[in-house]
Write a structure and sequence with these properties.
alpha+beta, 35% helix, globular, seven-stranded mixed sheet, Glutaredoxin
Length: 192
């Protein structure tokens, strides 16, 4: 009987912690306190939370600010070299960057490896990914991030985490886990 109560109590605590973590990492609209829609079809971004201001270093040591991309649709992708789901979606991200770069779309890959540039730079230089039968490098912009960068977006519940930002700088879609290329394509196209 005590063992059953312990199991039930443990499950209840885990469910409560999961609900708390989910609510704590959601992007919320500022207008009425409700959770934002999953995307903004047709470019309507009224009521969406603005993207935070942040500046990070790229792999060459240059400062890159999110505000540098105002007027473009930006996909911020938090990832790590050791993250298998991140590696799975990298070819899709490369493909999206190639398809939409000329239309005003940018991907910012924010690497969160504990070793920072020391781990990320060799990975980016060496690794190649199958994109439409061709081995391609990660040719979108890679930045070195940290916990403070993740916190500016409300924290992370898992890797990868992607946030789509509209041309007017609003966070319109947040995905924890692997993106769906088809769903992301529709959302990106609705914003271009």
């Amino acid at each position: 009987m005590k063992r059953t109560l312990l199991i039930v109590a443990t499950v209840a605590v885990l469910i409560g912690a999961t609900i708390f973590a989910d609510r704590a990492t959601r992007v919320k609209a500022k207008t009425d306190g409700t959770t934002m829609k999953s995307d903004a079809g047709g470019g309507d971004t009224k009521g969406f939370e603005p993207a935070p201001e942040m500046t990070l270093k790229d792999l060459n040591g240059n400062d890159v600010s999110l505000s540098d991309f105002k007027g473009k649709v930006v996909l911020v992708n938090f990832w790590a070299t050791w993250c298998e789901p991140c590696r799975t979606e990298i070819p899709w991200l490369i493909d999206l960057q190639h398809k939409y770069a000329d239309k005003g779309f940018v991907i910012l890959g924010i690497a969160l490896d504990d070793e920072g540039k020391k781990a990320v730079a060799p990975f980016v230089a060496k690794e190649r990914f199958d994109v439409d039968g061709k081995q391609q490098p990660m040719d979108y912009k890679i930045l070195i991030g940290d916990d403070a960068a993740a916190e500016k977006f409300g924290g992370l519940f898992g890797y990868p985490t992607s946030i789509l930002i509209s041309k007017d700088g609003k966070q319109i879609k947040r995905i924890t886990g692997i993106i769906s290329p088809d769903e992301m394509t529709k959302t990106i196209e609705s914003q271009l």
